[in-house]
Specification:
Layout (H helix, E strand, L loop, with lengths): L1 H7 L6 H4 L6 H9 L8 H12 L1 H5 L10 H5 L14 H12 L23 H11 L11 H18 L3 H7 L8 E4 L2 H16 L9 H4 L1 H8 L3 E7 L5 H8 L7 E4 L9 H13 L2 E9 L11 H11 L2 E5 L24 E5 L11 E5 L35 H37 L3 E5 L5 E6 L2 H9 L2 H25 L5 E5 L9 E7 L7 H17 L1 H10 L1
Parallel strand pairs: 2-3, 2-4, 4-5, 5-6
Antiparallel strand pairs: 1-7, 6-7, 8-9, 9-11, 10-11
Helix pairs in contact: 9-17, 11-14, 17-20, 19-20, 19-21
The protein binds pyridoxal-5'-phosphate.
Length: 557
């Protein structure tokens, strides 16, 4: 759309206007109008109404047209010149609509079942607009006031959901500015980092002539306390945010010790004990054991009570990463799957996954609110000591009121409403697992423990050859099958009708060989069994079109 790119080019603009530092009256008024309510922008409002009112229909107006190649789209985004003069708003809205919004991914469609961030309740776009308009900053009271109180209330609700302490406890801590029951952050990555940050600092407090790790740093801390290093232990399904965590915290990536899993994707306790033994021999202090409650790849949940026992024996911190799975605590029927989570020192939950809040809403919870002493900061001009500024306990600085989004979902859906959504999603996953098991040419790879499962396409002749054929042929078949499933997933995304994600896992039933699987997360309540059935049929058709299908046929015939 060259007309637009031309608008961006200062060479084409009125040269005389380029060198005036003081705008003329008309130009200045036009700028002021950008900040004055009700002054135009009708085209954008129209677009907003049509998108926010019904994002699925909006995103699918291109339905059944294949997705454009990214290289093709990139051509509209090559200029690095900031437009010197404002472009006409009608032109801009046209660019936005035709070149950008026409090509976004319909993640809220019931046919997009591949990711953890899905559809949102319909009140949220309006609330998002209100939040943007009011632009409150939760870092400090002066720019958020009542929203600080509301955020603390929401964090209290989350704390109660996990730890279920009594009224006296919440009376004491909920609005106690010197500590926090939990903090909001942009997502699970920062929640995990915050939890491990507090854990690391608490591990090496001030002692004798050592002023504490937070002041003197890790190197001196290790010398003072006489360790060769620190380690965080998690199963091999641990989220990669933990790798960033050990890196940022200065422990080094090798400090993340990955423990093998059993055939259900749960951490192997024997392997964990062996790893702990190894660390002891090398004089490396296990800083934290991390349990996963809903792994990103297969949805598996570690035996949290057993991990809590071991952490207690080792006197190390116990963290539970329930970024995705934590929402299922809202279900009375399934919360028993998380037994032991209430013994965790810290817990990560993402409200922007199955709590149906837009992205940017992670929560880290502290069993003991005093743990936040390990990370509390203050700066005189902004987050003051003895104030209730939420920024004293957060890694981030300026931060929007995402807590209001969660507050509204809790009130407008209710605990019971959430429970119904969670229960229905898990039951749908089980139904889909049954459906996959009934197919001759699909194989269920991981059973749904929550609403997530993995499977793959495998023609029955190939499956038979993999089980009974000569060893020499198996590796080749396995590789081809991985290639075929990668190809199916890519073709499916490009076709633009439905979507699953894919990952590679090491299933016990296939000798832990890296296996490409299709991954489905059934969080969208509008996804029906019929949609899933049609999707299997679509994948079957795509498989037949894949060049790898023919190769596989040749290999087994
Ligand atoms: C999604 C996820 C994370 C990371 O959360 P972000 O919000 O993407 O930063 C961490 N751990 C688990 C288990 C997750 O599923």
């Amino acid at each position: 759309m060259l007309y637009f790119l031309d608008g961006l080019n200062p060479d084409e603009a009125d040269k005389s206007a380029l060198h005036t530092s003081c705008p003329d009256g008309q130009e200045w008024q036009a700028l002021l109008d950008q900040f004055i309510p009700h002054a135009g922008e009708e085209e954008l409002l129209e677009l907003e109404t049509s998108i926010a009112g019904d994002p699925v229909t909006y995103c699918q107006h291109e339905l059944n047209k294949p997705v454009h190649e990214l290289a093709e789209l990139e051509k509209q985004f090559t200029s690095v010149i900031i437009p010197e003069l404002p472009v006409d708003s009608g032109t801009y809205v046209r660019h936005l609509s035709e070149d950008v919004l026409n090509h976004v991914v319909p993640v809220s469609s019931p046919t997009f079942v591949g990711h953890m961030t899905s559809a949102l309740p319909k009140h949220l776009p309006a609330l998002g607009k209100i939040l943007t308009a009011l632009n409150q900053n939760l870092v400090k009271l002066e720019t958020s006031h009542v929203l600080t109180a509301l955020e603390r209330q929401v964090l209290g609700m989350m704390h109660k959901l996990v730890y279920n302490r009594d009224d006296d406890f919440y009376q004491q801590w909920l609005h106690n500015g010197n500590h926090a029951l939990a903090t909001f952050c942009s997502g699970g990555t920062l929640a995990n980092l915050t939890a491990m940050w507090a854990c690391r600092n608490q591990l090496m407090p001030a002692n004798g002539d050592f002023a504490g790790l937070a002041r003197e740093g890790l190197a001196r801390g290790l010398i003072h306390y006489g360790y060769n290093g620190l380690a965080i232990l998690v199963s091999e399904l641990g989220h990669y945010s933990l790798k960033k965590t050990v890196d940022v915290l200065g422990l080094g990536q090798d400090a993340l010790v990955k423990v093998a899993t059993d055939r259900n994707g749960r951490i192997c306790i024997d392997a964990l004990l062996t790893q702990l033994q190894n660390l002891r021999q090398r004089n490396i202090k296990p800083m934290a054991i991390v349990g996963i409650a809903g792994s990103t790849e297969t949805g598996s949940i570690d035996p949290l009570n057993v991990l809590a026992d071991i952490a207690e024996q080792e006197q190390c911190h116990f963290h539970v990463d329930a970024a995705w799975g934590g929402a299922s605590l809202l279900s009375e029927r399934y919360r028993h799957l998380f037994d032991g989570i209430e013994r965790a020192d810290t817990v990560t939950i993402d409200a922007h996954k199955q709590m149906y809040v837009p992205m940017g809403a992670g929560v880290v919870l502290f069993r003991q609110p005093t743990l936040t002493d390990a990370i509390a900061q203050h700066a005189n001009y902004i987050v003051r000591k003895d104030s209730k500024d939420l920024g004293r306990h957060t890694l981030e600085g300026s931060r929007s009121a995402m807590s209001l989004m969660l507050h509204s979902n809790f009130h407008l859906l209710g605990r019971r409403g959430f429970a119904h959504l969670i229960d229905a999603s898990i039951e749908k996953a089980r139904q889909f697992a049954d459906l996959i098991r009934q197919q001759e040419d699909f194989e269920l790879i991981s059973e749904p423990q929550l609403c997530l499962l993995t499977y793959r396409y495998v023609p029955s002749m190939v499956l038979q050859a993999l089980r009974e054929g000569p060893e020499s042929a198996k590796q080749k078949l396995h590789d081809m099958l991985n290639a075929l499933n990668q190809n199916i997933q890519a073709m499916q995304w490009t076709a633009g009708k439905t979507f699953v994600s894919r990952t590679s896992i090491n299933p016990a039933q296939w000798n832990r060989q890296p296996t490409t699987v299709l991954r489905v997360v059934l969080a969208n309540p509008l996804t029906t069994p019929e949609i899933l059935e049609d999707m299997l049929e679509e994948q079957r058709q795509l498989a037949l079109q894949s060049p790898f299908w023919q190769t596989l046929q040749d290999l087994v015939s």
